[in-house]
Amino acid sequence: MPHALPLALYVHLPWCVRKCPYCDFNSHAVPSAGIPERAYLEALLDDLELATAGLDGREIVSVFFGGGTPSLFSARTIAAVLDRARDTLPVAGDVEVTLEANPGTVEHGAFAAYRDAGVNRVSLGAQSFSDRQLAALGRIHAGSEVEAAVAELRNAGFDNFNLDLMYGLPGQVLAESIEDVERAIALGPSHISHYQLTLEPGTAFERRPPVLPDDDAIFAMQDACQARLDASGYAQYEVSAYARPGRRCRHNLNYWHFGDYIGVGAGAHGKITDAATGRVTRTARVRQPGRYMTAGRREDRLAETSVVAGRDLAFEFFLNALRLVEGFDASLFEERTGRTWDSVSREVGAARERGLLERTTAGRWAPTRQGRLFLNDLQAIFLAGSGLRHE
Question: For the domain bounded by 7-254, which CATH number is listed?
Answer without folding.
Answer: 3.20.20.70
